[in-house]
Amino acid sequence: AEIGWLAVIIPEEHEGIAGSFMDLVVLFEEMGRACFMAPFFSTVICTLPILSAGSDRIKKEFLPKIANGEMILSLALTEPSATYEASGISTKAVADQEDYVIDGIKLFIHDAQVANFFVCATRTREDGPPEESITLFLVDAQSPGITITPLSTISDDKQNEVIFEKVRVPKENRLGELNQGFPIIHHLLKHAAIAKCAEMIGGADWVVENCTAYAKERMQYGKLIGSYGIIQNYLAEMWSEIGIAKRFTYYVAWLLDQGRPCDKEVSMAKAFVGEVYKRWTRMGVQIFGGIGTTREHDMGLYYRRARQAAILFGEPDTLREKVAQEMGL
């Protein structure tokens, strides 16, 4: 917050610096390189629906606090169904005088344990298409009826189960129009997917740099392992494919920044970058050998993070199905 990172996409009138999504992508890449652990990703991604759908009151109240580091946000979207589709949202919000009452379970919620507010996706009507039945609310994380339970994950990150039991939320905390929340979610998910791609290519850069350095110093059978053709081939292919993933990520980030239609490109990039990161972290473990399999060495952490990142905001098979649909199949 002190150096302005949380304020990058916030307008100047709300104490931000009016930067672009591309500026954020650069930050996310470097955070991925460092396996950065903080609620930065959650807070910035949740800033997007406030910018696009928040009322003037919400923007004036929330954006300066986000920019100054006074407020942490968490996206309460996924549920036990583990899908990002509207049909997977069953948490209900029912109108009651000047409030809505929320009941339901959210699962795999990042940084909920430190959040001040949730951006919570709810179902606000039972009839009609799922995509026209979803409403977003800003929910105070200290509200009575909220139970947060930490989850143990392979990636050692901060995920939680969040239970809402008769949680009251003022109607004025609604983001966007009633039952019109899913287009806002769709906009958020596209940006979140490419932000996660940026994190992955940063991590992948760490892998290729450190594997190359290790190959130049590790002796095996009287020779540096980097002198063996098979290791050279692995590292050359790793470097090439990660470079393609990086260029693809920045191209789609540019499309998003320009406001151009890019649903297909987002799906293609997320599926491709996720598979690249998984493949080359696995090879990184092999190149490091026994030490790469230990908890003491960083390589194993990048390997585990790759498996988690690949399924966040859309797992590869589902994304490829969306690409096929865009192709008319």
Assess the beta-strand content as a share of residues. Answer: 15-25%
Largest sheet: 4 strands, mixed
The unreliable regions are none
Radius of gyration: 21 Å
**How are helices and strands ordered from N to C?**
HHHEEEEEEEEHEEHHHH
Give me the side-by-side strand order of the main sheet: 1-4-5-8
How many helical elements? 8
Morphology call: elongated
State mean pLDDT (0 to 100 scale): 95
Give a count of the beta strands, DSSP E runs of length 2 or more. 10
Q: How far do the termini sit from each other?
A: 46 Å
Structural class: alpha+beta
Q: In percent, how helical is the residue content? A: 40-55%
Characteristic terms for this protein:
329 residues; alpha+beta; 4-stranded mixed β-sheet; 4-stranded antiparallel β-sheet; 8 helices; 10 strands
Description:
The structure is a single chain. The protein is of the alpha+beta class and 329 residues long. The protein has helices spanning 21-33, 40-53, 56-67, 182-215, 229-257, 263-288, 298-309, 316-326, and strands spanning 73-76, 92-96, 99-110, 117-123, 134-140, 146-151, 159-170, 174-175, 219-220, 223-224. The protein starts with 20 loop residues before the first helix and ends with a helix.
